[in-house]
Amino acid sequence: MSAIVADGLGKRYGRRWALRECTLEVPEGSVVGLVGANGAGKSTFLHLAAGLLEPSEGSLQVLGGRPGSDATQLAKVGFVAQDAPVYGGLSVADHLRLGARTNPGWDEAGAQARIRSLGLDLRQRAGKLSGGQRSQLALTLAMGKRPELLVLDEPVSSLDPLARRTFLADVMELMADHGPTVVLSSHLLSDVERVCDHLIVMAEGRVQLVGSVDELLAQHKLLTGPRRDERLLPRDQVLVRASHTERQTTVLVRTTDSILDPAWVVSDIGLEDLVLAYMDRRVAAPTETPLSAVPS
Amino acid sequence: MGWHVAVIEFRIDPRSGMPPYRQIVHQVRQALHLGLLREGDQLPTVKDVVGQVAINPNTVLKAYRELEHEGLAAGRPGLGTFITRSLVDASFAAHKGLQSELSRWLAKARRAGLDDASIVALFESTFHASSNRGVA
Question: Any CB–CB contact under 8 A between A29 and chain B?
Fold first, then answer.
């Protein structure tokens, strides 16, 4: 089953489209990395999924329902926004009480244990917490709901390396225990590679690439050979990117078949290079055919 | 869990170029070859691994499934995943002999002026040639 199904989803702010023609499915129980440059539409997509924004066009289903449509739907989704907002004047204990009062399935024992293991003082005002502690408090609240979908908008960007690793380990432990679907946006591709099994690459409000990390990596090949016209590739090879020197041509192609041409030196591509190729793509070739035409 | 003592710990190297699940499979095989893991040993629980190295639980499950497929481990429902085969056999003494022979050969290769990269290249090409002939 799919945790998220988007079909032609779009969101417009005034005259500017933040997200357009977004069609994708997120399988239940997966950890999805959402990557793209600033302003690519990541936060908009995550806010739509959490039910905090209304779509301007297209349709979006989250856990079989319309996001944010009623209390049950809201209770199924945990959301940690980019700046990990907490109520500065309220204490840590107040936050837990608030969580308990607003969520029917609240896991009080789990939330208390988490606060203890983090070494947070229950009487401390949230406004006095460090950035890392604030994110951990926001994550505790989101996890305390026992969500079926956990949406994290750049959860680790303000954290030091140790706090970042702890945060991700905690999310992964929650996964191992309760198996929610996790969608997280991040600029840190090493983190994405570590924890994500699915990937969405966005650029300029459009989805450039979506799929399982293993499959995407298996389907992309970097071909290097004597200089030639990259338009003369076999039909089954979809060109992602090409570059030439005076003597050499390097192309990144997507294909499910073997590369038969003996003139090419074929190499695999890592996640980081793959992501960068697609992030770059929209800017380099604005008239490229949409990805729905790509074999999957 | 906490009631069992983990025999090995995994590490994930983002620069290895190997997907994380392969790294786990590789580390288990290596530990088996080195005798660090033996038949009957329990592999770390999925939750322990993700808590230690912050990777996706599905990755650990995939690695363990692959080890099961290779006949090296088996899952026992509710208990965990256990090693079902040792890869270090009883004739370890004979391996010691092979190891010292190899050390002597390496010393000889260095005296002959080969650098490390050439030694590795020579070993690999000879290894592949003999594997292909079905000798190894």
Answer: yes
Answer whether B56 sits within 8 Å of A168, measured CB to CB.
no
User: Is A169 close to B54, i.e. CB distance below 8 A?
Assistant: yes
Could you tell me if B25 and B68 lie in one domain? yes
Confirm or reject contact between A169 and chain B (CB < 8 A).
yes
Of A178, A204, A230, which one is at a domain's C-terminal end?
Answer: A204
The answer, yes or no, to whether residue A286 has pLDDT greater than 60, is no
B50 vs A29, A176, A213: nearest CB:
A176
In this prediction, does ipTM exceed 0.85? no
Range of the domain at A138: 2-204
Task: Give the model's pLDDT for residue A296.
Answer: 40
| Same-domain check for residues A200 and A234 | no
Beta bridge partner(s), residue A207:
A202
Contact criterion met (CB below 8 Å) for B37 and B28: yes
- Total domain count for chain B? 2
Q: The pTM is what? A: 0.79
Which range in A5-9, A137-141, A144-148, A254-258 is most confidently predicted, on average pLDDT?
A5-9
Residue B70, domain extent: 20-83
Amino acid at residue number A211: G
The amino acid sitting at A120 is L
* Residue A157 burial (10 A CB sphere; 0-12, 13-18, 19+): middle
Search chain B and give the residue with CA nearest A166: B54
| Ordered DSSP codes for A112-170 | HHHHHHHT--TTSBGGGS-HHHHHHHHHHHHHHT--SEEEEESTTTTS-HHHHHHHHHH
Provide the residue count of chain B. Answer: 136
What per-residue confidence (pLDDT) applies to B5? 61
Closest Cβ–Cβ partner in B17, B19, B55 for A172: B55
The answer on B108 and B65 residing in a single domain is no
Q: Which of B67, B63, B66 is nearest to B32 (CA)?
A: B67
Can you list the positions of beta strands (E) in chain A?
A: 2-13, 16-27, 31-36, 57-62, 77-80, 149-153, 181-185, 198-203, 206-212, 220-226, 238-244, 248-254, 265-268
Name the minimum distance, in Å, from the CA of A218 to any CA of chain B: 11
Final residue belonging to a domain, choices A134, A169, A204: A204
